[in-house]
């Protein structure tokens, strides 16, 4: 079975600032799959909230989310699109 790409959002909440360099290193390692990244420092609660949009094989998304979630002080979840990758279709309006 071909490992088709999926679009997903990996969301993280980081409450241990010491692991931020490790988070950034992992994101760099998987950078070829990342479409967008948004980070929000929530200083009042000493949290960092990060969302990363990826287009990758499901096993790569799962691996990245799992590696992030195993870091101390990081909660990570992936939400997948229901669509698997497909070639672009041209539509004809008429």
By DSSP, the count of extended strands is 4
CATH class: Alpha Beta
Helix content: 10-25%
Structural class designation: alpha+beta
Average predicted confidence as pLDDT: 89
Q: What is the second-level CATH architecture? A: 2-Layer Sandwich
N/C terminus separation: 37 Å
Major beta sheet summary: 4 strands, antiparallel
What is the element string, with H for helices and E for strands?
A: EHEEHE
Output the radius of gyration: 16 Å
What is the approximate shape?
elongated
Count every helix, treating DSSP H or I runs of 4 or more residues as helices. 2
Poorly predicted runs are 87-91
Any idea of the CATH topology?
A: Alpha-Beta Plaits
Q: What number of structural domains do the residues give?
A: 1
SSE inventory with pairings:
Blueprint: E1 5-14, H1 20-29, E2 34-42, E3 47-57, H2 58-69, E4 74-84
Antiparallel strand pairs: 1-3, 1-4, 2-3
Describe the overall structure:
The structure is a single chain. With 94 residues, this protein is α+β, with helices and mostly antiparallel strands. It contains two helices and four strands. A hairpin with a 4-residue loop joins strand 2 (34-42) and strand 3 (47-57). The termini are far apart. The model is unreliable at 87-91 (pLDDT under 50).
Key traits:
94 residues, alpha+beta, 4 strands
Short description:
With 94 residues, the protein is of the alpha+beta class.
